[in-house]
Amino acid sequence: MAIPRIITIALLLFVSSLAVCGSSSASDVPSPRNGSQDAQSTAGQQMPTEEQQIAAATLALPEAFRAEAAVQSISADLKITQLRKGTGSMVCSIIQPGAKNFLAYCQDRVYDAYFYRQSQLQAELSRNGKPPAGADLKAALQKEIESGRIEAPTRPAVGFMMGGPARAFDWNTNTPSREVKHWETIQIPNATGASLSLPNSRPANGGPWVMAEGTLGAHIMIEH
After folding, report:
1. What is the pTM of this model?
2. Burial code of 183-193, b = ≥16 C-beta within 10 A, e = fewer?
3. Which has the least CB within 10 A, 130, 136, 147, 205?
4. Among 143, 141, 115, residue whose Cα is nearest residue 4
5. pLDDT tens, 75-120?
6. For residue 126, how many other CB atoms are within 10 A of its CB?
7. In this structure, are strands 90-95 and 101-108 parallel, antiparallel, or unpaired?
8. What are the beta bridge partners of residue 91?
9. Nearest-CA neighbor of 185 among 215, 151, 214, 209?
10. CB 57 within 8 A of CB 104
11. Domains of the chain by residue range
12. How far apart are CA 110 and CA 122, in angstroms?
């Protein structure tokens, strides 16, 4: 199967994002890997401060949970910079702050660690810029789960993401324009479209669908 990217946080890291394996289609959302071509700062745009990055990273999260979330920034080469330790279960990430695309997402700690390592493995197994086969990535992930290096997601969780062109987000007021898209995910390990009575690809007329079905990163995507 093709390996999609949302947040190879996707997300791949986050859902491919948030889920970067097991689905038959790719998302148009920027991610750490496919956004590396846009890692240069937008002309005339200053690098946001840590406070601005924290505010932006947690914006997608329901307000009641923002203060307790851990916050980190992730560079194009998947290097993490911790911006704030958290006391809750959620980790919020800001991708390539200052780049041509804006992307922020929040997800459960177990999923965050799982998708981050998945993104690392995808990069490590790539050859000449070509991503590894889905089976190879799945086998590498399973080996790391069995060794105890990473924890396999076993329970449902929710995730929140927003992304768009850099010009569509005002760092000074922490405000997205209408160009910024929003997604919520309901992560259900090993779920399929058939088991949830939902399509397994993005519907042409909108509505939720199951991405990365049949994998540990399976999730319902809700876009608005």
Report:
1. 0.80
2. bbbbbbbebeb
3. 205
4. 115
5. 888 889 999 999 999 999 998 877 889 999 999 999 999 999 998 8
6. 13
7. antiparallel
8. 70, 107
9. 209
10. yes
11. 40-108+153-223
12. 18
Kindly state the helix (H) or strand (E) to which residue 159 belongs, with its residue range: strand 157-165
CB 23 within 8 A of CB 38: no
Between 128 and 13, residue with greater pLDDT: 128
Q: What are the tokens at 137?
A: 């990535």
> Hey, what are 211's tokens?
């991405």
Using CB atoms within 10 Å of the CB of residue 104, give its burial: 0 to 12 exposed, 13 to 18 middle, 19+ buried: buried
DSSP 8-state secondary structure symbol assigned to residue 135:
H
The answer to whether the CB of 32 falls within 8 A of the CB of 22 is: no
> Tokens 């399509």 correspond to what residue?
199
81: tokens are 């910079």
At 124-139, the pLDDT tens digits run 999 888 888 888 998 9
